[in-house]
């Protein structure tokens, strides 16, 4: 009888230990975003997290379009994506259209990507990237926004992927996550060197 008591206590104890898991990253392309580019992002993200799902392209939700500037509101896209995702997942929207958000007193500020920290959704756009290194730059923006969803703020290190673009495109200067940001993301079970 004692053995059953100890097994019962052991079971209770084990069930109280939090299990650390990778989040499922769901990739949602919008509009005419290239299937080839989406698959490249999928393969690259798999390197840091094996739990990745690539969904089929869907149209932009109508409420995300901002007609006066002919672009899409990133905050509205994130709101849409957030409503489609579960607790242990994060969704990243991919698009080739111009996206924007409100920044301070500027109602419609054009951006490369947006992710809330922490959050369960983010969006990235290839619209503002240079044609020369577009694929590499796009992946860097995707990692940057996924970093925000994990809770990472902008970083002052000029070569870190979490650097704030500050209205420009410094992506060719950014090489990888800095030591501090890497440590944080490794704590979130990202597989980065």
TrEMBL record:
The keyword Hydrolase applies. InterPro entries: MetalloPept_cat_dom_sf, Pept_M54_archaemetzincn. Gene3D superfamilies: Collagenase (Catalytic Domain). Its cofactor is Zn(2+). It comes from the Bacteria. GO terms for molecular function: metal ion binding; metallopeptidase activity. One of its GO terms (biological process) is proteolysis. Keywords: Hydrolase, Metal-binding, Metalloprotease, Protease, Zinc. PANTHER family: ARCHAEMETZINCIN, ARCHAEMETZINCIN-2. This is Zn-dependent protease.
